[in-house]
Amino acid sequence: MKKKIIIIAAAVVVVITAVVIAVKKPSVRVIQSTDTAGPAHIVVTLQQTGVMKPQVGAMISVGARATGTLEMVKVKVGDYVEKDELVARIDSRSIRQNISQSEDNLNKAETELKRVQKLYPVQKQMQQNSIEASKSNYEYLKGVYEREEVLYEKGYSRKETL
Predict the structure, then answer these.
(1) Residues of the chain whose pLDDT is less than 50?
(2) Each residue of 40-86: pLDDT tens digit?
């Protein structure tokens, strides 16, 4: 009896699943229309691969690869262009300035490294001299203490001098 109920329940689930799949509408694809570019007033802009305004001197934003002021535009609105064809040039002064500043920073860092490398042996020698002086001072004071201890044991010195 239980087997029959389980089989009937499984059959009902299979039938309901088949009905849902058969009734389900296929997804609708929206195809955007295209048109030839021409002079017009842009009212709405979309951020896609990039946004380019055709006015010379305008800011250009093409993906994450380049931003800046247009120095030159080689094509007009509506012109056909080929793949990899140069359509505009971005003013590179700010990029060159950044490169120059980075080179200056690199040169300063290299100069500082050379200075530290030159100074390191001197500082190392000074530290070693300081260690030797401390050892000598320690040995001297240790000898003075031992001498006073011997003199105290023989009765030639007072305990306060220890």
Answers:
(1) 62-64
(2) 666 665 556 655 556 666 555 544 356 677 788 888 887 887 888 88
Distance, CA of 101 to chain centre? 18
Kind and range of the H or E element at 67? strand 66-73
pTM above 0.85, yes or no: no
How many beta carbons lie within 10 A of that of residue 2, not counting itself?
A: 6
CA distance 57 to 63: 19
56/72 Cα distance (integer angstroms): 7
Spatial separation of the C-alpha atoms in residues 137 and 131, rounded to whole Å: 10
Tokens 């029959």, residue? 4
Q: Contact, 148 vs 157, CB < 8 A?
A: yes
Q: What is the four-CA torsion angle of 35, 36, 40, 41, rounded to 10 degrees? A: 40
Say which residues have a Cβ less than 8 Å from residue 75's Cβ, sequence separation at least 6.
Answer: 81, 87, 88
